[in-house]
Amino acid sequence: MKAVRYLALSIAAVFFLLPFYLIVRNGLATEAEITAQDWTLFPDSLRWENVGELFADPAVPILRSLVNSTVVAVLQTAGQLLFCSLAGYGLARIPYRHANKVFYAVVATLMIPAAVTFVPTFVVVSTLGWVSDLRGLVIPGLFSGFTAFLFRQYFRNFPRELEEAARIDGLGHWGTYWRVVVPNSLGFFAALGVIAFLTSWNQFLWPLVIAQDQDSWTVQVALSVFLTAQSVNVHELFLAAAVSILPLVVVFLVLQRFLVRGVTETGIKG
Amino acid sequence: MTRSNTRAFWLFVGPFAVGLLAFVYVPIGWSVVLSFFDARNTVTPTDFVGLDNYADMLGDTAFLRSLGTFSAFAVFIVPLTAVLSLALALLVNQITVMQAFFRSVFFLPTACSYVVASLVWKLSIFNGVRYGLANTVLGWFGADPIAWTASTDPPWYWLVLVTLRLWLQLGFYMVLFIAGLQRIPRHLYEAAWIDGAKPGWQTLRHITLPQLRTTTVAVLLLNLVAAYQAFDEFYNVLGTARGYPPFARPPLVYLYYTSLGSGGQDFGHGSAGAVLLALLIAAVTLAQGKVITR
Question: Which sequence ranges are marked TM in the entry (chain B) (predicted)?
Answer without folding.
Answer: 9-28, 70-93, 100-121, 156-179, 212-231, 267-287
